Amino acid sequence: MYDRFNRNINYLRISVTDRCNLRCTYCMPEEGIQLLRHEDILSFDEITNFTKVAVENGVTKVRITGGEPLVRKGITTLVRMISEIKGIRDLSMTTNGVLLKQFADELRAAGLQRVNISLDTIDPEKFKTITLTGNIIDVFEGINAAKNAGLIPVKINCVIKESKEEEEAKAVTRFCKDNNLEIRYIRQMDLVNGHFSMVDGGTGGDCSLCNRLRLTANGKLKPCLFNNIEFDIRELGFEKAIKLAVELKPECGSKNETGAFYNIGG
Ligand code: SAM
Ligand code: SF4
Fold it and tell me: Model's pTM, two decimal places?
């Protein structure tokens, strides 16, 4: 699918839940989180059938995200349903890694190809400060489990404030080198005020190269993370929502006031 700016839209990111087992300070405020009602969250059949239509329209790359995708009950079943769709060449997941030790093998068996794991520090105390509830040992074990299960290449998403030369980021970089992991640096974004920037090591943030559509946990299809426009796949029907999202994908992002990272999926 080509949009008005000749970008080939072939990448779908699916947020499967807005729930999370961590509370990263830059993502989920400690208080005042408005969680979706369970009945508003897309069912596995809805997600799979929507993805089928997206693939028929040219999507070849799918990423499962959240919230934390591994807290969605039955996630392995969903991964299997999606992996059975003919035409997906790249099926990945972004996770905080906390539950990967438990799930890595079954996810691989269900057809997941690779994972991105979020890690902004290797210091247990700082990890606790950032995530409020997390234990970094779980993430380290999750990384190993992912490698052992063959969910490779394992990539690390490292949120930085300004630069990858910050102490925390430098330590994560060394950790990745020592453990044969790829790293992506993501500048901390301010979704509400529309502050965003390039992802170092990836195409994120470079609007001219953006090939993404995002499906929120409650069925809104967003052509741009930094724009309010979204199309309700239940109201419009899958085909029409996709058509409109591609047709109206903005040339460049500016500001988003309609969602939060934990619903849209980052
Ligand atoms: N829970 C999973 C995780 O943390 O990997 C998946 C969802 S999370 C919203 C997806 C990515 O968005 C993570 O790599 C996270 O670090 C990043 N993220 C969350 N809030 C952000 C923010 N304000 N600025 C930049 N990246 C952010
Ligand atoms: Fe949860 Fe991921 Fe947001 Fe952290 S970044 S609070 S792990 S959804």
Answer: 0.95
